[in-house]
Sequence to fold (1179 residues):
Amino acid sequence: MAFTFVAFSYILALIIDAFLIFFAIFNIIAFDELKTDYKNPIEQCQSLNPLVLPEYGLHLFFNLLFLFNGEWFSLVLNAPLIAYHVHRYLSRPVMSGVGIYDPTSIMNTDVLNKCQREGWIKLAFYLLSFFYYLYAMIYSLIST
Amino acid sequence: MPAGNPLFNHHNHEALEQNTMMQPPIVPPQQQPGAGGGMFNSHPQQQPQQPPLPAAYQNHHQPQQPQPQPPVQGGGGVGTTNPFHHQQQHHQPHIPQHLTQPQPPPPATVQHPPPGGITSSANRYPPNPALLQQPQAPPQQPQQYAQQQQQPQSQQGPYLPPQNAAQQQQQPPQRYVISGQPVNPSNLYPTIPTQPLPSPGPTTNNYSQQYQTQPGVGGGGGLPQNSHGHNNQYPAPPQQNPHAYNNGGVGMGVNQVTAGMNNMSVTQQGFNKLWGIDHADLLKTRQVLPPEGVKSPEIRFPHDYMNHVNCSPDLFRCTLTKIPETKTLLQKARLPLGILIHPFKDLTQLPVIQCSQIVRCRSCRTYINPYVYFVDQRRWKCNLCFRVNDLPEEFQYDPVTKTYGDPSRRPEVRSGTIEFLAPADYMVRPPQAAVYLFVLDVTTLAVDTGYLKTLCDVLLEHLDTLPGDSRSQIGFITFDSAVHFYNMNSSLSQPQELVVCDIDDIFIPCPDNLLVNLDESKEVVKHLLTNLPGKYLSSQNEPRSALGAALLAAQKILGPIGGRITVFCASLPSVGPGSLPNRQGDVKTVKDLSTALNPSTDFYKKLALDCSTQYIAVDLFFLNSQYSDVASISCISKFSGGSIQYFPNYHMVENPVQAKLFEQAMVRYVTRKIGFEAVMRVRCSRGMSIHTFHGNLFVRSTDLLSLPNVNPDAGFGMQVSIDESLSDFQTVCFQAALLYTSSKGERRIRVHTLCLPVAGNVNDVIQSADQQAIIGLLAKMAVDRSLSSSLLDAREAFVNAVVDVLSAYATTQNSLPNLALVAPKCLQMLPAYTHSILRSMGFRADLRPRLDDRSQFMNQMKTLPLYQLIQTIYPDLYPLHTIASVPLASVPQSSRSTTPENGEEEEKYPQFPVLHLCSDRIEATGVYLLDQPDSILIYVCRNVSTQFCEDVLGVQGFVALHEMDDLPELETEWSNLIRNFINYLQSNKPYQVPIRIIREDSKERMWFVNSLVEDRGEGSVSYYEFLQQLKNMVK
Fold:
């Protein structure tokens, strides 16, 4: 039983992952509101856009910890999502502010569906990885 | 109509809708289904008296001997071998009969909307109800008709040899006689009408009547469409190509030849036609364009009534006139599903209703419409969500007969297009006043073009006719590298100019008086408009443009009220917020185009969204001769419901054609109707949903479109998807409701309802396609594709769409000859349109078009109403030299008719056939008119007849012909007719466009030659080669 840096990074990942789960849920709810006409797309994008970069940043942050620790397997698990985030941000519409959602195109059913599906997939991924981090944390705590 | 009736008042302030005030707001009795349908059957005894049209056709070939014919002129039965012989037979029995018992013309024909090569705005109902019945007719029906017809003929024509009669019985073209359309001889001769046309009945035009009658009836079909010499002959096997028969049909023999030859395959073709499965091999058929122009296919319901009350195809069209019942079926048919709508089109007849409660479905908020089901007298069932709703007491009252009891007589359930005066619950705030703010570019480039003079003159002239009431406000801002404001307080003797140089942080120099009441400050405004053009001519101008700052200022001024900002822009914004880089040099290859066509900054988009929430729309006029990044700037209009107009290389003196166009466009712009604070909601039946919206709008929620302003020249498109199976339903409905504030400060709702039948069979679905609407929708989708992906992708998608459709059709047919590219009748022009659009300025795969031209073409594809969109892609070409032989039609009673002098007598115009845009249709002796959205070109070939030159062009011959800007007004018959024709074409456009007469050997001929898109062009394949490519791809 030893509290190593590895264990610490998994604890951090666990906490951050809980936040990411909330982000994903928030996204899903936001797009559902758009679909059911409760919210104006301009306001909705204004509330969603500031959250995009923090989400990407948090995800990248604990992966950097994995990198420093040499937790290759965890890193490989997360690599596709990092790549997707980078790609997503690079191919965002022309915007002066931060974020990736554009109120003029968000109401397009294709875009809306895509965003919502993205939200669900991320939620599933974060949930599964939550349990994985929990397991990895306990494993690194008990193994000496 | 009792004017004082509180329940049902016709409020009508717009001059355009004046008709409505006079008439009851329902379908006029003549157009009611009973009467309309009756024309088919209820006048059998009249039929022989009505000369069948083909005879009329034949008579045209001797126009030089215009003998006034007696009105009873016998008809050339199509069946007889010799039309003249036939006439003689008819004359004798006819004359006495007609004279003794002059029969009133069938009422059904009285109001028959005159069909023309171009559908007019007056055609609000699907024209001929008789035709619509025909698909349901049993196959033996043609024979029945023939017999019906035979009987009176044999009585009246005692000289008819029996074998001839027998022959007639079998000959399908007799259907012309059946159509029940009396022919007025004054129609047939371009000369003087023998009398001032007392009977309104016979004035319908025989020409397109002839073709309209055709598709439904079961007889085989040689189209006698082409008596003008341009024939359609790839050597085609006869059974494949009915059109090929017409080779011999030049002149008077058309009908004999077609009739005779058709005997052979009458049954087969008759059945094919009857069931609507007529198709042709595109590789072998050269004439696929119907001579009267491509029309929207008719929507066919089991019940006649439903056809009558549907929304006009000019306003609302679906790409399929039968909706597939499942998503799988739609995928099988591989056709795009979507609707195209022109919601605020100027209408001549529009029922307007004021009532205390607008009847709507309680759950889906659908407005009551002709397709609801009345469960009993107190309840109705919504046709979109199927909820049963209560009817209010008021709805029982029928304002026309002033009786209670029958809700189905209400105007709401009698018309597919209706306008309500909205009560107060439809307002979020008191209706705004009409507010106009003009933002004028006064940089060096802009002042040099001289547009200020034209603009100010037009405004001065129309200051009193600007739509609005006593609350109307107006303001002006000019900008170069600073923003100039004008204080126009009514107490001032002349406007006071305020210049703000701090463009990075723009502010409003004085709180009010920049926007002034038009009535109060009219003198000051006039003073400004008179002096503005001169003011900037004299002073030293700035070359730099601070457009962004001026727009921000304009938004601040209008913010509290909302209204319209009109921006004139002639240079690239280069200082302050919203300044743009010159990206023209960045485009080295076609692949770079998609970045250059996307905006380079979101400044204008964000501003547009801010404007949109404040009910401000921005309309743009580009007058640039250099690159000014239309792609970026136009975002300001795209998302605020504005309009974008583009006059490249505008110069008042050096480019007179463009100057004239600009002036006309400005007149139209400042006088056209406008709707403020508008929102449009498009609903559709349960099981379907609107997928993507196209047009200048902002989508505020899944089906709510925010249009800060709506103008009558804006079109919209929506892609529709099928989510659930529709097999339980017979029909589906789309309803578009446009809520707006009129310039008089009234809140109004214009509701359009389109109902379509559901089909369960892939063949039915394909056969019901509307090729023009499909191209309209594909073009919008392709614009999106070329912006999000790349231009090459979009081109490929275009070709794939056509290949998909044709492959889908091929799989539904059992036995098709190899090496044939078969297309159903309703899709035959699809490849031609596609080929043309691939060569157009917007989608061609080379770098020849300028970036701005390309951007603007794409903007147009997104926003033009379908009629203009098709004309942009595929302009109409008419052979003017055939004037001697084409039938005449009367000018439709469109209020937009721009000829005020037609008061005394009804105007006639010749119905020229539309030609393919192909150089081998051009004859050396011909004169051709090319009708484009922004110009009308008249192309005179070298060997034009002297008579035509003298009578129409006013010169001795081709040698003496000069390029002209208008046809001379000669007092000859031909000149009158052709000018009427041009007026008619002009009346179909939003504003008059310049006319240009071009000699075959001039430099300007390239304008015309470049429009012949079916020829091989530089770097692009010809239409025929394109077809062969398609052939290789279709499996």
Chain A has one domain: 5-142. The helical segments of chain A are 5-35, 41-69, 72-90, 109-142.
